[in-house]
Amino acid sequence: MRPRLDLYPGYDVLAKRDGPSWNAKTREVLEERLAIGPETRRFFDEAEWSTMKSLAERIVPQPADRGDPVPVAALVDHKLATDTRDGYRNAEMPGEREAWRLGLRALDAEARARFGARFHELGAWAQDELLKLAEKGDLTGAVWEGMPSKLFFHQRVLADVVKAYYAHPTAWNEIGWGGPASPRGYVRMDFDRRDPWEAAEAKPGREDEAYQENLRVGR
User: Fold this and answer.
1) Has residue 3 got a pLDDT over 50?
2) Shortest CA distance to 169 belongs to which of 4, 16, 3, 9?
3) Closest listed residue to residue 52, CA positions, set 77, 31, 28, 25
């Protein structure tokens, strides 16, 4: 019996790359995304980058033994470098680029004021304490220049970081997602049903069965 390594053992969504599940546009988008390495940076400056990477690690911590982690900070940087916007924003918030630059500077300033070091130099506990205060809107120093820390946390940090993580095939493998539904689509939409080209979850005692089935999913 193969030991259970994860919920979808043997599954690799990229096995669908050249199959009928994805069209040319999907492949093009994924190739661009996969070309972004963990240190790919075009928007953030060096100081902002250190803070951004530490922030991403606290919001979506990844397994220490993951050989190829999702480049979350770099994906957020790419979004900002290409000026890819949400299409809407809260009236209390500046534009996305300005909000990120302001918010990262503010987090560093708050870290120095409370703990005597920049955000990326703090331990996980202190970083989390600052983020909890931001989440509640309790970071109100002049350095925020009127931008509510609560809105920055919820509408920029959480939104951009979590979306960046789940836009990557590594995260798709983790949750058993098959990727964009074009052109094949999804048919069996009822509870506890799945199409044959979707990943099989490893049920207790049936891990090896799921593993073998997931090896065939991309074919």
Assistant:
1) no
2) 16
3) 77
Least Cα distance to 157 among 60, 36, 90 occurs for 60
Is the domain of 10 the same as that of 35?
Answer: no
Q: Quote the number of domains for the chain.
A: 2
Please report which helix (H) or strand (E) contains residue 29, including its range.
helix 24-34
66-96 as b/e: b if 16+ CB within 10 A: eeebbbbbbbbbbbbeeeeeeeeeeeebbeb
Tokens of 71: 């480049």
pLDDT of residue 205: 82
How close are the terminal C-alpha atoms of the chain, in Å? 23
Q: Which pLDDT score is estimated for 218?
A: 61
pTM for the model stands at 0.91
Predicted confidence band of residue 21 (pLDDT cuts 50, 70, 90): confident
pLDDT bracket for residue 83 (50, 70, 90):
very high
22 three-class SS:
strand
Claim to verify: residue 163 and residue 205 sit in the same structural domain: no
> Who wins on pLDDT, 107 or 190?
107
Tell me how far the alpha carbon of residue 106 is from its chain's centroid: 22
Per the DSSP assignment, residues forming a β-bridge with 22 are: 183
One domain, residues 151 and 184: no
Q: Which domain holds residue 213?
A: 1-21+178-219
